[in-house]
Structure formats: structure tokens, C-alpha cells
Amino acid sequence: MCLSIPSQVVAVDNERQSVTVDTLGVRRDVSSHLMTEPLAIGDYVLIHIGFVMNKIDCNDALQSLELYKEIVSKLENETTH
């Protein structure tokens, strides 16, 4: 099973068909070759093996990120006790 964490687009390079995304504070460049719709700074996307697979709704992305942070926090608490 693969878990895709929503990532926010922070830079767009149309010439290279790539975007820079921020995933929970980690930035990286990924390919946007597979996208049929344009991406803009502030968009939330899902990534798989270095490629943007699709753009997702901002509210859905923020809800997913909060849930992910909650899960990580609970796991961290379990390992420290």
C-alpha cells in the first residue's frame, strides 16, 4: 500500500515541465509531465515516484494533512511511552 501525502506547489518551471513542492516542510522538484491541466503556486497535488499524479482540492488536502499529523503524533507518543 502506498500513502500519498498532499504536497503544495511552491514553484513552477514550465520549461522543464516540473514543479517544486513542499511536503510537510520538505521541498523537492517533481515532474509535471503527466498532468493535463496547468499547475499554479498554491495548488495541492499528490505525487507518486517523482511525478505529479493529480491536483486535489485545497480543503481536502488540509484535512488530510491534519489527519496525517495526528497519526504521526500518536505514533510518536506510543514509542516514547
List keywords for this structure.
single chain, 81 residues, alpha+beta, five-stranded antiparallel β-sheet
Question: How is the secondary structure organized here?
Answer:
Blueprint: E1 7-13, E2 18-23, E3 26-31, E4 44-48, E5 51-56, H1 58-80
- The strands making up the biggest β-sheet line up spatially as 3-2-1-4-5
**Percentage of β-strand residues:** 35-45%
Unreliable segments (pLDDT under 50, ≥5 consecutive)?
none
Shape: elongated
Helix content: 25-40%
What's the count of strands?
A: 5
Order of helices and strands: EEEEEH
- Give the integer mean of the pLDDT values: 93
Discrete helix count: 1
The whole-angstrom Rg is: 14 Å
What does this structure look like?
This protein is α+β, with helices and mostly antiparallel strands. 28% of the residues lie in helices and 37% in strands. The chain contains one helix and five strands; from the N terminus they run βββββα. A five-stranded antiparallel beta sheet has the order 3-2-1-4-5. The longest helix is centred in the last third of the chain and has 23 residues.
